[in-house]
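Moderator note: this is an archived Q&A kept for reference. The question asked for a predicted structure of one protein chain; the sequence and the answer are reproduced below.
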Amino acid sequence: MESIQNYAKWRMFGKDISHHLNKLDDNFIKNGGEFREVKIGDIFNFYTGDTDIQNKHINGLGEYVITSGLSNSGILGQTNVKAKIFEQNTITVDMFGNAFFRDFNYKVVTHARVFVMDLKKDLNIVMTNKVGVYLVSLLKYLTKIYKYDDMCSPVKIKNNTIILPYINNQIAVSYMEEKIYELEQERIHELEQERAYEIEAYLMAVGLTNCQINQIIGGGSGLIFICLIILSLRNLKLVIYLKSKIILN
């Protein structure tokens, strides 16, 4: 049986993930990859909405509506009011330069100056979730350029640049997807480590630092504490489930 205190080895694995990121970059360059600065307008098409959707139109029906701002990732609500519907797997950018990848169909608020970006068809690139997230990460710097008195727009953004990976004179899609995958894995392990710290602190506080799988402590009128640890060696992940219940007299 593994006790919670053995989570330390996952900390080491977290460091290995960062090593994987460095190794990924090194291998990419060794295999002929390179990074190029390209104009946003050279790889993206731009689209705008056709209806001035307002708060009174939000009724919980139909498609999601995208507005400006970071609140709820720019999702205002849902509406079935007649308006242009943009397809999933595209990117929205608002007047402040906030960019989000959208994996669902949606409508946009025109007075909030939200516009839509999609990769040009001649690139022959499918904007998967990972490709979209990678591209959005490159666009984050736009919020440092644009603001209320100098709003972001397709006309302005098309001459801004981003750095893209290329191999064999083509955008390296596989590199982008693998990069995001490794970053996701790194974040997962960071969260697992944080959760492990919280659980061990709780166990120490109640004197249960040696709690192991299926161990039950307490009586009918006290604290029944069940701690279940599932170790997946195949994926080297730590999944922790903690459940407690107070039974009153």
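Archived answer notes: The first strand starts at residue 34 and ends at 39.
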